[in-house]
Amino acid sequence: MASEGLADAIATVGAMRFDPYSNGTQWYMDVRTLSAHLAQGPLDAALCQLVDARVSQINGCAFCLRLHMHWARRAGVEQSKLDMLAGWQEAPGFDERERAALNLAESMTRLGDGRRVDEAVWSAARARFGDDELAALLYIVGLTNVWNRINIAVELPADFELPETGPAAPRKVGRSEN
């Protein structure tokens, strides 16, 4: 019966299958260190959080989405922009750099089964970001996908509190414009 499957799914929300953060401490620390390093990179905190939130929306990671929406607000992203993030392609209020970054993030997140980053998407990102910025953007998108996939695989609850061991991962708030 379909309602039994739904009840089972609802019952599992909040019950993590495995805790990779306590059981894989060194790997968690390594990935978290990379996150902290990228947080000090050349990209504006607000742009990074928009990208992280959009990747998390696409992947369906409730934990990461909650986290990055919070960090985006702290970085100064207006709530109206966050409300329109899923429809950014048709929504007003996103500048050309944000659009290029979001388009690249979506393309990278949806790779596989023969899909690649389209040349027009790549060219738009290349035209709007310097070498260091583009490299940081590529790693941010890739790393957000890593976090999302781990958290989804273990069914990490949206309200889970990550261990506070190691460097902090949130992007620096109040960074200057690129």
Describe this structure in words.
- By secondary structure, this protein is mainly α.
- It has a domain at 34-153: AhpD-like (Up-down Bundle).
- Helices cover 62% and strands 0% of the residues.
- Helix 4 (45-59) packs parallel to helix 7, helix 7 (96-109) packs across helix 8 and helix 7 crosses helix 9 (131-153).
- It is globular.
- The termini are far apart.
Helix % is 55-70%
Identify the overall geometry: globular
Which CATH-level-2 architecture of one domain?
Up-down Bundle
Average pLDDT figure: 88
Number of DSSP E strands: 0
Which percent range describes the beta-strand content? under 5%
Largest sheet: none
Rg value: 17 Å
What is the CATH domain class of one domain? Answer: Mainly Alpha
Order of helices and strands: HHHHHHHHH
**Count of helical regions:** 9
| N/C terminus separation | 54 Å
CATH structural fold name of one domain: AhpD-like
Q: What is the name of the CATH superfamily of one domain? A: AhpD-like
Structural class: mainly alpha
Low-confidence stretches: 5-12, 166-171, 173-178
